[in-house]
Write a structure and sequence with these properties.
mainly alpha; two-stranded antiparallel sheet; 15 helices; 2 strands; 2% strand; rod-shaped
């Protein structure tokens, strides 16, 4: 619904601006009270994502299929005459190639009114011009909190990653998700980076967010499985694979279906024998041996195209898998024979 979508957008923007306010307060708490001291201390503050908040934002998948409108830049606060005059002086100093004076003036603007986005942008350009791309990038990140543009956050994430600021890149990817929960590519990039730097908890929470958008998606499950095993979260891993098995079993009752990744017809629609073995192994590790046996019997029967042969469920032994005697017919006329 449009009204619900607008409410979600407003909530996300408010949360990001709250992050901005907290960063500003941390900078002020760590400073000596001067405008230059305030911003010099900024570089000691870690821009790490709060995973608890990211997990809390794994909302119901109500946004699936909803196209997010292109978000324009949000109007900032009404600037005082003093601040507008200072911004004008700073811009003129920049035009005159007086970078130190530009920095001094824009720092003073930010001290007076931190939400003056133009001051952050000009200050960032000054540091870029002096070759300090790291500081310039962090200043642009501060400005991005006020613009609510998912594309801008994506660009900042890529630049942070290119410069080796991996935690900063994770932070930026997280902001893309907050602004556009349907952007699965951003979630995939975030999860891949987190896994690359061995931040397994972040990789876990991000992939779970992806599964909210792409339920039972096998490439995500395959990437998530070793992470959950490393984190000793075997119960969750078995639940995810069991739900995927139930989904594919119901979606492709014949035991064959089209693989959404390749378009080819494959056993189980992609949920094949290896996935069955993974699920059975998880149950064995959890000492749930009965479930492991059930998965193997039911799953292999399904992959062989014999899902309708439920009569074998009454057998406590494994005679179903014995090789049939010569000329002996087991199951209905024309059915795939067991033991194959």
């Amino acid at each position: 619904m449009p009204g619900e979508a607008d409410a979600e957008d407003t909530q996300a923007e408010t949360a990001i601006e709250g992050d901005f306010d907290r960063l500003i307060q941390n900078i002020r708490d760590a400073s000596d009270g001067s405008s230059s001291g305030m911003l010099n201390k900024m570089w000691d503050i870690s821009l790490e994502e709060r995973e608890a908040e990211f997990k809390d934002d794994l909302r119901e998948a109500s946004g699936v299929g909803r196209t997010k409108k292109k978000r324009g830049r949000k109007r900032g606060p009404v600037l005082s005459q003093q601040v507008r005059a200072l911004i004008g002086e700073g811009n003129q100093a920049y035009v005159d190639a007086d970078v130190p004076e530009t920095i001094r003036i824009m720092q003073e603007v930010i001290r007076i009114e931190p939400r003056a986005a133009p001051a952050w942008s000009v200050l960032a350009q000054c540091y870029d011009d002096t070759g300090d791309s790291g500081k310039g990038l962090q200043l642009r990140i501060m400005a991005a909190h006020l613009n609510h543009d998912a594309d801008e956050w994506a660009e900042l994430a890529q630049k942070s990653r290119a410069l080796g600021y991996n935690q900063q890149a994770l932070y930026c990817y997280g902001k893309i998700y907050h602004l556009d929960p349907t952007n699965v590519n951003a979630l995939w990039d975030r999860a891949s980076l987190a896994k690359e730097i061995n931040d397994l908890k972040t990789a876990r929470s991000t992939m779970l967010a992806m599964l909210k958008r792409l339920p039972h998606h096998l490439p995500v499950l395959d990437e998530l499985r070793p992470i959950l095993i490393e984190l000793s979260d075997l119960a969750l891993c078995s639940d995810l694979f069991q739900h995927a098995f139930d989904h594919y079993h119901a979606a492709f009752p014949s035991g064959r279906g089209m693989d959404p990744e390749t378009g080819a017809e494959v056993p189980g629609g992609g949920f094949g024998l290896m996935h069955l073995l993974v699920l059975a192994d998880l149950y064995n590790t959890l000492s749930q041996y009965g479930k492991a046996v059930e998965v193997i019997r039911k799953g292999c029967r399904w992959l062989q195209g014999r899902a309708a042969q439920k009569l074998w469920d009454a057998c406590e032994d494994d005679r179903e898998w014995d090789a049939p005697e010569s000329g002996m017919q087991r199951g209905g006329e024309g059915e795939v024979q067991p033991g194959m």
